[in-house]
Amino acid sequence: MKNLLVQVVLVLCINFSFVKAQTLLPEQKQEAYQAAVDFQLEMNLKFADSSQSPLNPEDLKQFTALNFFSIDTHHFVAKARFERLEHEKPFAMKTTTQRLPEYKRFARLHFNIGGNKYQLYVYQNLDLVKMPQYKNYLFIPFTDLSNGFETYGGGRYLDLEIPDTQEIILNFNKAYNPYCAYNEKYSCPIPPKENHLNIAIQAGVMAF
């Protein structure tokens, strides 16, 4: 009986520690909220600028702002464990055209949303990494249950930089559409099937 009681206490302690580790601090939520506000502003400025906007001329004339979900730091900002992957072989990622850029799996993210466990692979573009300005750039293409309804049917992207620690803040309020959601002339990576989330991510940029 004593041994059983000890085991129960240990399980409760482990579960409490895990929940505590997954909980965002108030200042982390505030930082995530501000990051989402800045992201929306930057996206709208970029799309309104004819020198860098992916919009075709007709859409650009009518453009006022992108549609975003309301910023949600309760459900769609999570602490994620950054599991660095070793000895991964390069592969050709499919795109919306015949282009086949080379990527490799760089890491795997482990995180919780609503008490459920999820994971996403993080990729590194083997051409971009040769450029000094992109040496730390990582790419997260993903699909979820909102695609084709509230969000673009082909999935969305998140950007990331190589972290210094094994824990990152994953902010889905900064999820954005590939350029081919706005203009057919672009060639966009198609999220691999392994990066499908069986949940509707109602955060970030909505369908155009």
Overview of this protein structure:
With 208 residues, this protein is of the alpha+beta class. The chain has one domain. It contains 3 helices and 7 strands, in the order αααβββββββ. Strands 1, 2, 3, 4 and 7 form a 5-stranded antiparallel β-sheet that branches. The chain has a two-stranded antiparallel sheet with strand order 5-6. 26% of the residues are buried.
Question: What does this entry show, briefly?
Answer:
This protein has helices at residues 2-22, 26-48, 57-62; strands spanning 77-84, 91-92, 102-113, 116-125, 137-142, 156-161, 167-171. With 208 residues, the chain is of the alpha+beta class. It has one domain (12-195).
Topology (elements, then pairings):
Elements: H1 2-22, H2 26-48, H3 57-62, E1 77-84, E2 91-92, E3 102-113, E4 116-125, E5 137-142, E6 156-161, E7 167-171
Antiparallel strand pairs: 1-3, 1-7, 2-3, 3-4, 5-6
Indicate the low-confidence ranges by residue numbers. 4-20
Helical content band: 10-25%
* Rg (C-alpha, Å): 19 Å
**End-to-end distance, in Å?**
61 Å
Mean pLDDT: 92
Number of domains: 1
Treating each run of at least 4 consecutive H or I residues as one helix, how many helices?
3
